[in-house]
Amino acid sequence: MSETIRVLISEEEIEERVQALGKQISEDYAGKQVHLICILKGGAFFMCELAKRITVPVSMDFMSVGSYGDGTASSGVVRIAKDLDEAIEGKDVLIVEDIIDSGRTLYYLIDVLKHRKPNSVRLCTLLDKPDRRVKDVKVDYVGFAIPDEFVVGYGLDYAQKYRNLPYIGVVEGVE
Ligand SMILES: O=P(O)(O)OC[C@H]1O[C@H](OP(=O)(O)OP(=O)(O)O)[C@H](O)[C@@H]1O
Ligand code: HPA
Ligand SMILES: [Mg+2]
After folding, report:
1. Which ipTM was obtained for this model?
2. What b/e sequence results for 100-128 when a residue is b if at least 16 CB atoms lie within 10 Å of its CB, and e otherwise?
3. Which candidate in 61, 101, 131, 140 is catalytic?
4. Mind listing the pLDDT tens digit for each residue in 77-93?
5. Any catalytic annotation for residue 101?
6. Pocket perturbation via mutation, ligand 1, pick of 40, 65, 68 by most ligand atoms within 8 A of CB
7. Which CATH number is 33's domain given?
8. Is residue 165 part of a domain?
């Protein structure tokens, strides 16, 4: 059977939700500058759209932390492939992710970042898959809670494909 994609969350639904999250974040960070940290590669699409909806001053940096390789299950081993360019000491950090699945990536990352003495660290994810959680992670902003299915699009890949889809879909026809 060949791979097909079933739409789970439409482009319009995502746009509406990202707008609402941007508004909420702008209210919560009123009077402050928010330092967005994008977790590459998956978080890139979401961060760009979210940043445009935030009305307080924004700075941003990028980090790449991989554990999935080309499969649909986390290897459990998290490694930093690209670290931040700038120090985060004293900054109000908001980590921007595409998905929290097992929680392993963010559990590890939050610990690493907290040791660098930011003023605060919060987490914003477009998608949350709570049924698959292995590590407990406190998520401050969630776009959508989704069922236990492997999703692609809007930054999320399956074997590096489908990141460019403007919606979130479920891959069908893979073993
Ligand atoms: O909660 P977890 O089970 O740890 O899974 C979530 C992480 O896995 C994916 O990244 P991946 O390692 O596939 O890298 P990518 O963003 O470059 O695709 C996703 O973007 C999250 O960072
Ligand atoms: O459902 C998913 N899709 C794509 N990448 C992922 N990384 C963790 N979970 C997922
Ligand atoms: Mg991936």
Report:
1. 0.97
2. bbbbbbbbbbbeebeeeebeebbbbbbbb
3. 101
4. 788 999 999 999 999 99
5. yes
6. 68
7. 3.40.50.2020
8. no
